[in-house]
Amino acid sequence: MIRLSLYGGFGEKGRTCLGLETPGARVLFDAGIKVGGADDYHPAIPVEDIPRLDAVFISHAHEDHVGALSWLIARGFGGLVFMTHETWADTPGMQRLYARPEDLERFHLPEDRRRLFRPGERLICGDLAVETGRSGHVPGGAWFLAETQGRRIGYSGDVVPHSPVLVMDPIPACDLVLLDASYGDDDQGAALRTAAIRAWLAGASEGCLLPLPMAGKPLEILALLDGDLAIHETMIAPIRAQLESAAALRPAAVTRIRAALDRARAWWDGDPLPRCPLLIWDGMGATGPSVEALARADAAGLPILLTGHIPPGTPARRLHDAGRAAWIRLPTHPVASENHEIHAGTGAGLVLGHSCEPAGLEGLRARIPALDVTARTGQQLIL
């Protein structure tokens, strides 16, 4: 028997979490939070089941995939945590930003419970053998393919098949694949969106604000920027650290990003707003220096460009809805044709999509008829 429990991210965006139970293992793939959530902030796993978990596999250190790790530990999780070296480096900081204070006090993950790996390694947990590969989403990001009882289940995490900056390994053949459906049926790829962003930047020649997450997307943005720019001081060292993950990156992109960093001016809270693009974190205005910077830019009439997910209720979303911030999605997830390509490569007969609202899943099914659009957080599947 193989039981899949959809604990978060199915029919919704955020708190991504998949449970997998076999006779020899109980594990989670990812443990995220939902920015702007209330009762649905954490995964929908019964609290009494948490101490029985053997392991959690974390795909990368974004809040919707790792933000609930402190919550799990505070409720009795004592198993192993599998993640890459890069993901572990960013995980404590992500807990400080998104964990509830009472849970953060309990966050402790000793070395003997950490299983750090590099994408491409094969991992073992009980009767599960888990293949891994590069995600193309962030340096150190990984997808997982679990094999047990002759069945193969592919979990994408967040992936980008054709990033101009990062490399993704193909997900191998499997019986069930869980796709990163973040963009639903949107099929405008990186080339179109990059051209649109460059055109917008050309029209903001007197300066602009670019709120971004700390990992992944800053590399994509820096690779397309020409000319003067400024970066919040606290982002510079983490970006340089991401460039050390050579196996995850395309060499030509690294050259462009290093050149952009070399000509960038460090910017600090309270400095005058610069007359050039200013990169700042986070991308939603929900935490970090972007909270104050968004308010200052808005008050000064400085153009603001949002390029990622902006959940309802966040400062970035409110500015966009009021017409005071532009939004051009720079793909850091698969567009519809890329998800079709991933599915075709796996040959999976069963297909689910995570990190997407129901309407987006319905649109994606036009590309992938096998996609089950009825899967929702709280449901279970038996294979």
UniProtKB/TrEMBL annotation:
TM region positions: none
Record bears the keyword Hydrolase: yes
Lineage: Bacteria, Pseudomonadati, Pseudomonadota, Alphaproteobacteria, Rhodobacterales
Enzyme Commission designation: 3.1.-.-
Domain Metallo-beta-lactamase: 14-217
Record's protein name: Ribonuclease
Alphabetized GO MF terms: hydrolase activity; RNA endonuclease activity
Swiss-Prot/TrEMBL keywords: Hydrolase
